[in-house]
Each structure stands twice: as C-alpha cells, then as structure tokens.
Design goal:
The chain is mostly helical and about 400 residues long. It is built from 16 helices and no strands. The protein has one domain: Na+/H+ antiporter like fold (Up-down Bundle), CATH 1.20.1530. The radius of gyration is 21 Å and the shape is globular.
Length: about 400
C-alpha cells in the first residue's frame, strides 16, 4: 500500500530550509549553510521528524544533477579561451597544493596508508574536497568594491571554472579507483573515453541545439531537451563508464553553455531546482551528517581541515598568479579570492560519502569550512583592497 508520509517530509524540508536560509542570509552567511543546518535540526541528530528514505535519496540525486548541469551551463568558454594559460596555471596550483595538504592532514591523523588501499583513497579524497572553489561570495564582494572587471577579478572567475573542472575529473578517478575490483588503467581508459566521446558527440549536439535556437527561440521545449541531455549523459557516465553521474551532468552543461538559449535553460532549470530539488539535496546532507559521532579528535581534525583548506588555496593560487606575472599584492588577492568554499565542495563531499570515501562525522569539518571561508573571504579581500586604495592615494599626494 502506498504511503503518503513523503508529502509531509517534503513540506517540512521546504519550510525548514526556507526559514533557515532566510535567517542565515540576514546574518550575511550563504543560505546554503542555513539549509544544511535545517537538515541537522529536523533530522535524527536533533528533532528526528524527518528521516532519510529511498525517495528523498533519489530526489536529492536529481537536485545535485541539476546543480552541476547549471554550473556547466554558466561556464564562459570564451572567457576561458581568452585567459586560458593564466587561469590554468592558477587553477592547477590551486588544486595541487590543497590536494597535497588534505592528504597530509588526513594521514597525520589516521596514519600513512599503502598506495591503492582504501585508507589511501580516503586521504586523497579529503584533498579533493578542498580543491573546490566557490566564488559567488568573492564576486559579490569585488562587484561591491568595483573591482570585479579588473585583472584580479577576471583571473579569479576564470581560474575558479578550471579549478572545478579539474576537481570533478579527480573525483571521477578516485571514485572509480576506490572499487576493490577496479583496474587503474581501465578507470583511466573509461574516463578518457567518456570525455572523448562527449567532446565528439557534443559538437553535433551543440549544432543541433543552435538549430533549435533559430527555429524555436525561447520555447519551453529547449530547456526540456537540454534537461533530457543532462539526464542521459548522467546515466551514460555512471552506467557505461563507471564514473560519477555529476560528471555527465556537468559535461551536458558545458556542451550547451555557448548557445543563445543557455541563460533561458538556466532560468527554467533554476525554477525547479530552487523550488524543490536543491533544498532537498542540501537538507539531505544535514540529515546524513552525524553530530553525535563528533569527538575531540573530529573537532581537532575539523580545525586543521579549515586551516589547511584556507592556507593551501592562498599559497597555491597565489604562487600560480605570481608565476604568470602578477605582483605580490595581486597574487595575494587572487589567493584570498579563491579560498571560499560552497556548493561544489558540499557536492563533492556528498558523493564521497555515498561512495564510502568519507566518515559521516567528518562532514562537520566541511560545514565548518563553508561557514568560516564564507565569513573570512570578503573581510580579508576588503582589507587588502583598502590597503591598495590607501597606497594609491598616498602616491597621488606625493605626485602633486
């Protein structure tokens, strides 16, 4: 007999996520943090009025698919071509240094494991989580100060896109290799084959959607076709190539990001995502997080995790910027601008949790990181730019 409990679960999730989201926005924190806390409160950790079910798991998976599809759609390929070498250098070091830092941190707490063991992949995965960058807060801060279109702002925006692409590829490899029956060369082959076929097929699909653009401008059928492509590639990636479904969804967005209707597709997908699927996804993370299992060791790890995540981004991206000709002050601003973490870090952590690469109690560390980086990034950026503006005023005064 069909149970209708899921109606009540959905109602509680939606109202709780909205109320907590609004509350956190009022104290100048990302709404996503509030939604995570909502999941903790209504879930088994506190009130216990909503429990994870197969229905919610599948709805949450649709939510993460939509988020990654939208991320791909909002990628600016023209900007990437224009700043390709510079953004690649910043992003590459902004991935390598945090990846190494996360691996060393986990190994320092749990011991260095043999290469290829499950513990080894767990250590690597901690590094992968902190490779992700969320620049939404940085963008708002730079826009507020009128610095978004400058040299530093452009570098941060471009590098963040490349940063996320590299992070998704690394996640794909590690999830594939974590399987005890997995053969490293087969995982590599499958990943390369998927991206190769997606690139070849993507060209034809791109031309097909451009044809739809001309024949059916701003018709609702185009977002529907786009979402079908997203679901198909997510299925193909997971079922035939053994790589993360979010990789397929992200690639689908990349394929369609330069058509005229890309913003229209984003607008329509966002309505469904914002209304239902995204709140369920982020709330489900709160439902899964085990705060009862938080020990002194987990708290110490969380503090170390936050410190390593922030410092390695500043160092890695800062060195990358310095290598391509930025001044020391500009390189520092790039590093600070890249240290914020948000949705992508949470998505990566959730996929690792599902794949058994992460202990649920350690999700507390990821939540701490999102909160701390969201608060500190705009503060430090404003301080750095105030110093620059003060120096410019001093130079003008001397010149006069």
């Amino acid at each position: 007999m069909l149970s209708y409990e899921f109606f009540l679960d959905l109602a509680i999730i939606l109202i709780a996520s909205k109320l907590f989201g609004i509350a956190f926005r009022k104290i100048h924190l990302p709404q996503v943090v509030g939604i995570l806390i909502a999941g903790l409160v209504i879930g088994p950790n506190v009130l216990g009025i909503v429990n994870e079910s197969d229905f919610l798991v599948k709805m949450a998976e649709l939510g993460v698919i939509m988020l990654m599809f939208t991320a791909g759609l909002e990628t600016d390929l023209k900007e990437l071509k224009h700043t390709g070498v510079a953004s690649l250098c910043i992003a590459a070091l902004g991935v390598i240094v945090p990846l190494g830092g996360g691996y060393l941190l986990y190994s320092g707490f749990h011991g260095f494991a043999a290469v290829g063991s499950e513990a080894f992949y767990k250590a690597i995965f901690i590094g992968i989580i902190i490779t992700a960058t969320s620049v939404s807060i940085t963008v708002e801060t730079l826009r507020e100060m009128g610095k978004l279109k400058g040299k530093v702002g452009t570098a941060i925006l471009s590098a963040a896109i490349v940063d996320d692409v590299i992070g998704i590829i690394l996640l794909t490899f590690v999830i594939g290799l974590k399987n005890p029956a997995a053969e490293p060369m087969k995982v590599v082959f499958n990943t390369v084959a998927f991206f190769g076929l997606a690139a070849i097929g993507g060209i034809a699909i791109n031309y097909l959607f451009k044809y739809f653009d001309k024949k059916y401008p701003h018709r609702r059928r185009i977002p529907i076709y786009g979402f079908v492509l997203c679901l198909v590639l997510a299925y193909v990636a997971e079922h035939y190539f053994g790589i993360a479904d979010i990789t397929g969804a992200f690639v689908a967005g990349i394929i369609l990001c330069n058509i005229q209707s890309s913003e229209y597709i984003v607008e329509k997908i966002d309505i469904n995502s914002y209304m239902l699927f995204s709140p369920i996804f982020f709330t489900s993370i709160g439902l899964k997080t085990e705060i009862t299992g938080v020990t002194t060791m987990v708290l110490l790890f969380s503090v170390g995790f936050v410190v390593v995540a922030l410092l390695t981004k500043i160092v890695g991206c800062g060195i990358g910027a310095k290598l391509i000709g930025f001044s020391s002050h500009e390189a520092l601003r790039v590093g600070v601008g890249m240290m914020a973490r948000g949705e992508v870090a949470l998505i990566v952590a959730q996929k690792g949790l599902s794949a058994g690469l992460m202990d649920p109690s350690l999700f507390t560390a990821v939540i701490f990181l999102v909160i701390v980086s969201s608060v500190t990034t705009p503060i430090i950026l404003k301080i750095l730019y105030k110093k620059e503006d003060a120096q410019e005023q001093t130079n003008i005064a001397y010149a006069q």
